[in-house]
UniProtKB/TrEMBL annotation:
It holds the Pfam family CMD. This is Carboxymuconolactone decarboxylase family protein. SUPFAM superfamilies: AhpD-like. GO terms for molecular function: peroxiredoxin activity. Residues 14-96 form the Carboxymuconolactone decarboxylase-like domain. NCBIfam families: ahpD_dom. InterPro entries: AhpD-like, AhpD_core, CMD-like. It comes from Streptomyces benahoarensis. PANTHER family: 4-CARBOXYMUCONOLACTONE DECARBOXYLASE FAMILY PROTEIN (AFU_ORTHOLOGUE AFUA_6G11590) (PTHR34846), BLL7811 PROTEIN (PTHR34846:SF7).
Length: 157
């Protein structure tokens, strides 16, 4: 598969892409644990069918020391026993924040309360921005048919 456009070439693409990657880097340096970030990014990408981001965040999670079992079980996290309550709350928030068309209220009060029980306000803010960022990046990649499979951990740092 060939990409419809590339984000690293052309007169305007490099500047825009640079700013997007800077936003992603700022999130990585934020208050959420790296593992939580990668699990959330992976789950959002699975829901949106973004192969590029699934490739990236699977590899980044593994490079950060995440086990293959946990990475493989992200799609079925509700039934899996390998995630902490804080991770489960973050994954639940990520799902509701991604499936906004399925739930008019976005993130329900109950889901927000579970996330707030495990994350402080700064972490919640970072989590919401991460979910929003991942949804945007997923759409960019899906709409332009970016091919997946050759991402190297740390490639955009």
């Amino acid at each position: 598969m060939d990409a419809r456009v590339t984000f690293t070439t052309g007169p305007d693409a490099p500047k825009s892409f640079k700013y997007l990657m800077a936003a992603g880097q700022a999130l990585k340096e934020g208050p959420l644990p790296t593992v939580t970030q990668e699990l959330v990014a992976l789950r959002v990408s699975q829901i949106n069918g973004c192969a590029v981001c699934i490739d990236m965040h699977t590899k980044e999670a593994t490079a950060a020391g995440e086990s293959a079992v946990r990475v493989h079980l992200v799609a079925g996290w509700r039934e899996a026993t390998v995630f902490t309550e804080a991770e489960r709350a973050a994954l639940e928030l990520a799902e509701e924040g991604t499936r906004v068309a399925d739930a008019a209220e976005g993130i329900s009060d109950a889901v927000w309360a579970r996330a707030a029980a495990h994350h402080d306000e700064e972490q919640l803010t970072a989590l919401v921005i991460l979910v929003s960022f991942m949804n945007m990046v997923n759409r960019l990649n899906v709409l332009t048919r970016q091919p997946a499979g050759d991402y190297e951990p740390g490639q955009y740092q």
